[in-house]
Amino acid sequence: MSAAALAACSPTYDWRTIMNNDNGYTVDLPAKPSLDERQIDIDGTPMKMDMQTAEAGDAVFAVGTVQLPNDDPNTQRATLDFLRAGLARNLGVAPDARATPIPLAAGGDVPGFEVTFSGAAGPKKETRIMHARLVAKGRHVYQAAVVAKKELPPEQLDQFFQSFKLY
């Protein structure tokens, strides 16, 4: 196989640090990110979700931020549950999660959740692997996720998740 054909098969990671001051986080993304915004409804309450995404090869790296109407722990928990269940439903799997610390840019951490799902997604029901971390802080709930057609090298996942820090 020629070197050009091999190069075409391996994704290019052009890591860059993104500081999102509006939503209070910093993260390394493997390409120039795009921004999106959508309205979601959680327990009858409309909320705005900002999405920052970047693609590298067959993988999408994303950070979603839900802006909460308050910093009540019940609102945070309901939003975390909604997002975790939605991620699992997208791949047709159970919404399991395990506790993991999410780092703060100033040092220390806050409790969050980590999930890994594998299942069929999209109109063609193609296999997808998703790694995600979910965390609430103040009036924000964050969802950092990587979705890919096959398992990514651990160093790429580590680069993304270890760089995700909240202000």
Produce a short descriptive summary.
This protein has helices spanning 3-9, 73-91, 154-163, and strands spanning 16-20, 25-29, 34-42, 45-56, 59-67, 98-103, 109-121, 126-137, 140-148, 165-166. It has 167 residues and is an alpha+beta fold. The longest helix is centred in the middle third of the chain and has 19 residues, at 73-91.
If you had to describe this structure to a student in words, what would you say it looks like?
The chain has 167 residues and is an alpha+beta fold. It has a single domain, classed as Mog1/PsbP, alpha/beta/alpha sandwich (Protein Transport Mog1p, Chain A, 3-Layer(aba) Sandwich). It has three helices and ten strands, in the order H-E-E-E-E-E-H-E-E-E-E-H-E. The strands form two sheets. The protein has a seven-stranded antiparallel sheet with strand order 3-4-5-9-8-7-6, with helices on both faces. 29% of the residues are buried. This is Lipoprotein.
How do the helices and strands line up, and which of them pair or pack?
Layout lengths: L2 H7 L6 E5 L4 E5 L4 E9 L2 E12 L2 E9 L5 H19 L6 E6 L5 E13 L4 E12 L2 E9 L5 H10 L1 E2 L1
Antiparallel strand pairs: 1-2, 2-10, 3-4, 4-5, 5-9, 6-7, 7-8, 8-9
Keywords:
single chain; alpha+beta; Protein Transport Mog1p, Chain A; 3-stranded antiparallel β-sheet; 3 helices; 22% helix
What is the SS-derived class? alpha+beta
Q: Which segments are poorly predicted (pLDDT under 50) over 5 or more consecutive residues?
A: 1-9
What is the molecular shape?
A: globular
In whole angstroms, the N-to-C terminal distance is 47 Å
